[in-house]
Design goal:
single chain; mainly beta; globular; seven-stranded mixed beta sheet; four-stranded antiparallel beta sheet
Length: 123
């Protein structure tokens, strides 16, 4: 049984930075891609960023240049460094792992999910 646990959320001002972490346990996910999604109130879950098993990264256009996804294979963890935060980045952020296809933006391909961590950005 794989468990993903996010941490690092919080409340910040616009322009600030925040770093989210995702720790996997129960099974190594180093051979699989991992990703971050987010969901704002009243909206659908939205792809944010993904990183393949080999370290290739993908980003939603809205976060390119501001967010950086990374992973530490030895620790079975993943991170999302967020800078230049905007009020529209406010959402619950979820980490996901274990996909076996490359349609990363499709949330239905990810079998493992964390419980989410809240990010609030004030103007």
């Amino acid at each position: 049984q794989v468990q993903l646990v996010e941490s690092g959320g919080g409340s910040v001002q616009a322009g600030d930075s925040l770093r989210l972490s995702c720790a996997a346990s129960g099974r190594s996910l180093t051979s699989y891609p991992m990703a971050w999604f987010r969901q704002a109130p009243g909206k659908e879950r939205e792809f944010v960023a993904a990183i393949s098993w080999s370290g290739v990264t993908y980003y939603h256009d809205s976060v390119k240049g501001r967010f950086t996804i990374s992973r530490e294979y030895a620790k079975n963890t993943m991170a999302l460094q967020m800078s230049g935060l905007k009020p529209e980045d406010k959402a619950v952020y979820y980490c996901a792992g274990g996909a076996t296809t490359s349609s990363y933006i499709d949330h239905s391909i990810w079998p493992y999910w964390g419980q989410g961590t809240q990010v609030t950005v004030s103007a």
